[in-house]
């Protein structure tokens, strides 16, 4: 794997991790809203 | 988890993941055997922490199950349930990353290596826990029986993750304590382990809150 390949791999890793992180944040917000409604 | 801690976790794991790919040296003992794909040895920074955190999750589930059997608080049952679910997710990811690595390293996705067999048994054992929960309608009976089942994990999880793989006379995996690991690789793996453990507890807390909301809906 050349230098470009490892850069792509690092970028894909970061995109997947950031996506999961933002999903968890939005899920927590939704849960918070439902808990307030109770 | 406090908002500042969440963003710290994001930063921590971003640094770990970037360092694992762009900075860490290749893992000795693996890189040399990988022919034209030595970079695939970097999967060790994901595969090993995922496997260890899944073990911690199953042991935590056993501990919460024992607490439930002692105090009979529904929140402990929900904690055990969530720990098994998130633990199964981590265990599945450890299995998949291991299979990908195995294809490059040993020529096949699955070799019935003792560690591969034991992680498959762990997936079956904890998959059966979820099936058990799904099969019982009464919430109290479900909580009691599944807690008794998950409490077996105090023995089953260490047996599958640590004892069974060591009992076999032959394993494709390196024997514990025999593989040489450079300091940067070791510390980066530890940093990854800390990050994945924090991620587990965050996901676990989120899942517990969802289960609590579901329980209120049922009542």
Elements of chain B, N to C (H/E): HHHHHHH
Number of helices, where a helix is a run of at least 4 consecutive DSSP H or I residues of chain B: 7
Radius of gyration of chain B: 19 Å
Shape by Cα distribution of chain A:
rod-shaped
Give the radius of gyration of chain A.
17 Å
Report the oligomer. Answer: heterodimer
Low-pLDDT residue intervals, each spanning 5 or more residues of chain A? none
Report helical residue fraction of chain A: over 70%
β-strand amount of chain B = under 5%
Which secondary-structure class do the elements of chain A indicate?
A: mainly alpha
> Which geometry of chain B do the CA atoms define?
globular
Number of helices of chain A: 1
Average pLDDT of chain B, rounded to a whole number, is 86
Task: List descriptors.
heterodimer, A: 38 residues, mainly alpha, 1 helix, 0% strand, rod-shaped, B: 219 residues, 76% helix
Explain what this protein looks like in three dimensions:
The complex is a heterodimer of chains A (38) and B (219). Chain A has 38 residues and is mainly alpha-helical. In chain A, 92% of the residues lie in helices and 0% in strands. Chain A has one helix at residues 3-37. Chain A is rod-shaped. In chain B, helix 2 (44-71) runs antiparallel to helix 3 (74-106), helix 2 crosses helix 7 (183-218) and helix 4 (114-135) runs antiparallel to helix 5 (139-151).
Provide a concise account of the structure shown:
The complex is a heterodimer of chains A (38) and B (219). Chain A is mostly helical.
Topology:
The complex is a heterodimer of chains A (38) and B (219).
Chain A: H1 3-37
Chain B: H1 3-22, H2 44-71, H3 74-106, H4 114-135, H5 139-151, H6 153-167, H7 183-218
